[in-house]
Amino acid sequence: MRRIFRTLKEGFIGFFRHFSVSLSSIAVVTFTMLFLGIILILTNNINSTTKNIEGNIDIWVSIKADYENEKPQIEEEIKQITGVSRIQEITKEDALEQYIATYGDAYERFKENNPLLDGYLIYVTDGRYLEEVSNKVKSAQWAFEVMDGGDATNNLLDSLNMLRTGGSAFVIALTLLAVFLISNTIKLSIYSRQDEIEIMRIVGATNNFIRSPFLIEGILIGIFGSIIPIVIIVFGYDYLVNKLADSTIFGLFQITPAVPMVYEISVIILITSVSVGLIGSFISVTRNLRWVR
User: Does pLDDT of 293 surpass 60?
Assistant: First the structure.
């Protein structure tokens, strides 16, 4: 226990004694975590928007006239298909009313002898199920015509997946960049304390004993480096949502509410900052402590 307290004490003393060097590492963490937070917010909103778009992608299927009396069984069959979130019945009367509302009274004459067919709008839980659900519906005996958007819908879904993948890749790249930058900036602290490290070696200190205070410093760098990004993310995003929610451009997107997202991202930033500081310190110290007892 005494040894743990001593390590903590040495870590705090080293951090504040060499604060000018630590400040460069804190700045690296601060800017990197701020960008990470912004990317996480953008990625979260992109995911919400794409999920919202995918949730509104539907498949239209019309039913053969011979099967109109079997609609309860057909509905149950559709619901059993993997990937179907919900279905909406569109009767031929409803469809004709939509034609009249869209194209004018020219279609009024079809009310006496409606040529349209009953059908369903089928909504999928996720875009990746669209083709599978569409193929299963097309193979059904009762299906007369199936419309799923074709290549245009598939291209849209591919673009949405690329956005999600790109956001995730950018988050990983930023995290790795932070580890690399912190590892290099902490080298400055080690170089400035070579004499101190050499004395500790002479008196018999092991590499683990020498390394421990630097790891504490790395954790402190992570904690201090996360403060400003967390404050900006929590208050800045809430301000933007309240200020710009009614904007026309925002109407095109599914905006994620500030709470609890900003708190979840704040926890991620704190954990990532501490982890990055710890890993960066460990890598840098391990590379420079080449003397093994």
Answer: no
Cα–Cα dist 43/171, whole Å: 9
Cross-strand partners of 59: 122
> Whose CA is closest to 181, among 12, 35, 4?
35
Distance of CA 111 to the CA centre of its chain: 50
Which pLDDT tens digit goes with each residue over 35-72? 888 888 887 887 777 777 666 677 888 888 888 888 88
Identity of the highest mean pLDDT range in 99-108, 128-137, 158-167 = 128-137
Bridge partners of 63, per DSSP, are 143
Beta-bridged to residue 62, according to DSSP, are 119, 145
- Which residues pair with residue 123 across a beta bridge? 58, 86
Domains and CATH numbers, the chain: 2-53+156-288 (no CATH), 57-149 (3.30.70.3040)
Helices (H) and strands (E) in the chain, counts: 10, 4
CA distances from 184 to 22, 82, 109, 179 (A): 12, 51, 79, 9
User: Residue 133 corresponds to which tokens in the numbers above?
Assistant: 């659900």
Is residue 292 scored above 50 in pLDDT? no
**Cα–Cα distance, 67 to 78 (Å, whole number):** 14
Banded model confidence at residue 205, pLDDT cuts 50, 70, 90: confident
